[in-house]
Write a structure and sequence with these properties.
This protein is mainly beta. The protein has one domain: Immunoglobulins (Immunoglobulin-like), CATH 2.60.40.10. 14% of the residues lie in helices and 49% in strands. The chain contains three helices and nine strands, in the order αββαβββββββα. The strands form two sheets. The protein has a five-stranded antiparallel beta sheet with strand order 1-9-8-5-6. Strands 2-4-7-3 form a four-stranded mixed beta sheet.
C-alpha cells in the first residue's frame, strides 16, 4: 500500500517546471529513505559514506534517514555557488518550512538527494501536502523550479 501511495504521490508531483535557458530539473522524485539505503560496501572498509555519483544534501548532515527529493539537474554549463531552496507544507501546518542548500552544479546531468532528515522530519509514514524546489544562481536569480500539483493549487 505504501508503494502505491508513494507512486501515486510522485505521479501527481511531477508538475511542469519553469527553467532558464540551459538549466532544468529533469525530475524531482520525493520519497522516504531509510539510513540503510545509503550504506554501500565500501563504507565497511573506509568508515566513510560513499555517495557515488550523487550529491547528498541534508538538513542534519549526521542523520541519513529522512524524506528526500531526488532531483536530477541538466545544465549546459557548470554553475558555481548555486542554492537549492526546498519549501514544504506538512500535514497539519499550512505554513511552509523552508530549507536552503548550497551546491556547485556540474555541467551535464547530476543527481542531488535533497533530504529533510533527523528530527526535521517526523517519520517514514508522513508525506508532504505540497512542495517546491527552486534552484538559484549565485546572484539569487531563479534558474529553474519544480513543484507539486498542490503547491500550485492550494485552495483545491
Amino acid at each position: 500500500m505504501r508503494f502505491v501511495s508513494a507512486t501515486l504521490f510522485c505521479l501527481i508531483a511531477l508538475a511542469a517546471s519553469a527553467h532558464a535557458a540551459g538549466v532544468e530539473f529533469v525530475r524531482v522524485w520525493p520519497g522516504w529513505r531509510d539510513e540503510e539505503s545509503f550504506v554501500r560496501i565500501s563504507e565497511y572498509f573506509t568508515y566513510r559514506e560513499n555517495t557515488g555519483r550523487e550529491t547528498v544534501l541534508r538538513t542534519q548532515p549526521d542523520a541519513r534517514a529522512g524524506f528526500y527529493f531526488l532531483t536530477r539537474t541538466k545544465t549546459d554549463a557548470a554553475i558555481s555557488g548555486a542554492t537549492f531552496k526546498l519549501e514544504i507544507v506538512s500535514p497539519g501546518n499550512p505554513q511552509p518550512r523552508v530549507y536552503s542548500f548550497s551546491a556547485d552544479i556540474p555541467r551535464g546531468s547530476r543527481v542531488f538527494q535533497i533530504g529533510v532528515t533527523g528530527s526535521d522530519w517526523p517519520d517514514e509514514d508522513t508525506y508532504p501536502v505540497a512542495w517546491r524546489v527552486t534552484l538559484s544562481g549565485s546572484d539569487g536569480t531563479v534558474l529553474t523550479s519544480a513543484q507539486s500539483f498542490l503547491w500550485s493549487n492550494p485552495s483545491n
